[in-house]
Amino acid sequence: MSEQKKTNIILFSGDYDKAMAAYIIANGAAAYDHEVTIFHTFWGLNALRKDEPIQVKKTLLEKMFGKIMPRGPEKMGLSNMNFAGIGPKLIKKIMKKHNAMPLIDLIEMAEEQDINLVACTMTMDLLGLNKAELRETSQYAGVAAYLADAEDGGVNLFI
Amino acid sequence: MNADKILDAKGLACPMPIVKTRKEMKTMNTGEILEVQATDKGALKDFQAWAKSSGHELLETNESNDILTFHIKKGE
Fold this sequence. Notes:
Chain A: This is Peroxiredoxin family protein. The complex is a heterodimer of chains A (159) and B (76). Chain A has 159 residues and is α/β, with parallel strands linked by helices.
């Protein structure tokens, strides 16, 4: 086989459906034996958030952000037809019927497949997110690390 | 066709049939044949593409009663 190909996905969105698409492609690419990296920035960082509250020192504004943003993938809303939170419940019901994996399972599958889950540290600061609040498997980097992966990458997506 | 191993991926949705197949393939030796059964409609094109890109050989594809059966020979 030729040398290992790369897939790089920037997950900017904090929408459940868009994150699902990103993680499905990532898991598929890992099955293609690509070296896969998902670079989480802005609202996409919430996909890496643990679902339990973590005690960390924050400013008032950071606390507010922390409260308003979804705590973990299963609390995310839909990009379309969210209907104040009813939409995600409906779609999860339909997903179950069709045996589609929930986002949290896709993330765990990604960890199992050694996909690099990278959190953008600059936007972590902006949103007031602390390392302790993100999944243990998270790696931390900035734009240069993303570009180093992307410049010789085969698949590059921004979601 | 005789297979060295059989993987039941029926009922699984994208991307799981491919993810599980790749996992199973890793446990096999070059030249061995894996039979995969799937019901995901996209699997037909997915398996053709995946086998080609991953260096395996898709020997045979059958479809009956909405069940797709693939025979894949492990490459190098």
